[in-house]
């Protein structure tokens, strides 16, 4: 049998652009692949998948490079990078868009804006649409239009059944509907290599945005007000609040409302009335300006990071807020923070079993995060995140699979809750030899029993 050759743009450690090619958004947990292949079409993807099977080489799939734990990299193996496959085909008549899986949000939003449309997706422009969609996809239009995966109509994915093959499947609610179910919340790299995603689009023109800033002393009152308001307010309004380390002396709430600035001013009154805000901004802007407003430059640049997360199904009692405050008073540096995004609205109108995204009943997604500049600071930052997550765990549920944390022991149940069993059955049907595996890939049913 003729041996398959890798096709596409190939980068190896001897090439001058190797460092750039291998570097992900998180500079911690670095990995040193033997080869990176930048695929340019489905043929390159199929060849790469056949090649790893024939040569028994470990591999990972990569798009936007934002995996918190660098699960899209592997030392000594092949990285199948699809970021150069990023064409966007807009269908005006049907209000749909087909996007090659390598596109990041920085490409997607401006392209859809040309048609005054959008899809609900994340905030940072360098985040890959595919990783975001496969795990769910939370953003500033979630409460109005749902998660990114709720707007997915179809995807194309190259799977391998264990016969040293690779075939392209088109999955939607009619065909391969079980795989389509799993790809809406089951996370990346579990079933195959996604090559394109099709979504319904929504009309959008002007929106209103707000940002309100307070000092440290208002933390408890502000968080309590926000958590009781943000998940239940008008569903056209999605907001977030960041509680920063005490030294940063900043509590910052931001939000996006599909409506007028005067309506938004009235809606945010519970926030403007609490504590002593140091800055209040409420304004109406073209939607694309709002996209830029939420796109933090610091998130797009590679840095040393540790992040983890959880969901809240009900508001925190006073003692949980005090716990957060205590940790933020004793943070390893001023970049450490607890970040919260309001859910509810459209994200909750779908049942936990309708897609693989399990935490439909959550009111808030909560993220613990820290960034530092020197690798010697890593241990205390990781310890802080883990101790904080554990201290709050009696008030929280699970974790978002797109915020993976390799220190969570029972990660399959933590990410997937009661959807785990069905995901494992689908894994067995489409990847019986467990070709697609990484430290937190969905285990085959037999492997999970051994755990
Ligand atoms: C700065 C920052 C901002 C973020 N903002 C948001 C946000 O606003 N909302 C939100 O919901 N999440 C957000 N996230 C989390 C983000 O959704 C996840 O990190 C997501 O997995 C990133 O996907 P990626 O393609 O960029 O990353 P990658 O590292 O390329 O991939 C992530 C995972 O998907 C797999 N994968 C990549 N391409 C494919 C493919 N073609 N087929 C199958 N599997 C594939 C990878 O193997 C890996 O396991 C953010 C993360 C960061 C670091």
SSE map:
Blueprint (H helix, E strand, L loop, with lengths): L8 E3 L6 H5 L12 E4 L3 H14 L3 E4 L15 E4 L6 E4 L4 E5 L4 H9 L3 E2 L10 H7 L6 H4 L6 E8 L7 E6 L4 H6 L10 E8 L1 E2 L2 E9 L4 H11 L7 E8 L6 E7 L3 H7 L1 H4 L6 E8 H8 L2 H4 L3 E9 L5 H12 L7 E6 L21 E9 L5 H15 L18 H6 L3 H11 L14 H6 L1
Parallel strand pairs: 2-4, 3-4
Antiparallel strand pairs: 1-2, 5-6, 6-10, 7-11, 8-9, 8-10, 12-14, 12-15, 13-14, 13-17, 16-18, 17-18
The outline comes out as: globular
Q: Architecture of the domain at 9-81, according to CATH? A: 2-Layer Sandwich
Low-pLDDT sequence parts: none
Helical run tally = 16
Q: How many beta-strand segments?
A: 18
CA radius of gyration is 22 Å
Q: What name does CATH use for the topology of the domain at 9-81?
A: Uridine Diphospho-n-acetylenolpyruvylglucosamine Reductase, domain 2
| Average predicted local confidence, pLDDT | 96
What is the strand arrangement across the widest sheet? 15-12-14-13-17-18-16
Instruction: Please bin the fraction of helical residues.
Output: 25-40%
CATH class of the domain at 9-81: Alpha Beta
**Which secondary-structure class do the elements indicate?**
alpha+beta
Taking the alpha carbons of the first and last residues, their distance comes to: 38 Å
Percent of residues in beta strands?
15-25%
**Would you identify the CATH H-level superfamily of the domain at 9-81?**
Uridine Diphospho-n-acetylenolpyruvylglucosamine Reductase, domain 2
């Amino acid at each position: 049998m003729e041996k398959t050759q890798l096709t596409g743009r190939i980068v190896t450690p001897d090439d001058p652009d190797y460092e750039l090619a291998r570097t992900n958004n998180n500079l911690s947990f670095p990995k040193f692949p033997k080869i990176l292949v930048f695929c340019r079409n489905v043929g390159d993807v199929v060849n790469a998948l056949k090649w790893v099977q024939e040569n028994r080489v470990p591999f990972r799939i990569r798009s936007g490079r934002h995996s918190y734990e660098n699960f899209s990299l592997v030392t000594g193996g092949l990285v199948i990078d699809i970021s150069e496959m990023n064409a966007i085909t807009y269908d005006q008549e049907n209000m749909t868009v087909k996007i090659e899986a390598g596109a990041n949000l920085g490409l997607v939003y401006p392209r859809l804006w040309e048609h005054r449309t959008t899809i609900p997706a994340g905030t940072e422009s360098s985040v890959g649409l595919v990783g975001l969609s496969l795990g769910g996809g939370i953003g500033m239009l979630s409460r109005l239009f749902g998660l990114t995966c709720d707007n997915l109509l179809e995807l194309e994915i190259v799977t391998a059944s264990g016969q040293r093959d690779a075939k392209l499947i088109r999955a939607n609610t009619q065909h391969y509907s079980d795989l389509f179910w799993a790809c809406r919340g089951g996370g990346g790299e579990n079933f195959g290599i996604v090559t394109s995603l099709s979504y319904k689009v929504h009309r959008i023109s002007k929106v209103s945005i707000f940002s309100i800033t307070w000092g440290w002393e208002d933390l408890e009152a502000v968080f309590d007000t926000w958590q009781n308001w943000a998940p239940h307010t008008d569903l056209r309004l999605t907001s977030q609040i960041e509680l920063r380390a005490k030294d940063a002396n900043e509590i910052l709430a931001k939000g996006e409302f599909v409506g007028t600035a005067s309506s938004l001013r009235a809606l945010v009154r519970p926030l403007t009335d609490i504590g002593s805000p140091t800055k209040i901004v409420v304004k109406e802007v073209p939607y694309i300006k709002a996209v830029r407003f939420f796109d933090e430059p610091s998130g797009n640049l590679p840095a040393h990071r540790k992040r983890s997360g959880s969901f809240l199904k009900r508001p925190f009692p006073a003692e949980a807020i005090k716990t957060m405050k205590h940790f933020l008073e004793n943070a390893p540096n001023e970049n450490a923070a607890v970040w919260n995004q309001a859910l509810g609205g459209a994200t909750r109108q779908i049942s936990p079993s309708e897609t693989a995204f399990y935490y439909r009943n959550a009111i808030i997604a909560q993220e613990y995060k820290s960034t530092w500049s020197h690798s010697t600071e890593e241990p205390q930052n990781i310890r802080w995140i883990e101790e904080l997550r554990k201290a709050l765990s009696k008030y929280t549920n699970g974790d978002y699979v797109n915020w993976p944390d390799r220190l969570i022991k029972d990660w399959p149940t933590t990410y997937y809750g009661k959807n785990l069993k069905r995901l494992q059955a689908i894994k067995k049907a489409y990847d019986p030899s467990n070709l697609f595996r990484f430290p937190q890939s969905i285990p085959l049913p037999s492997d999970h029993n051994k755990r």
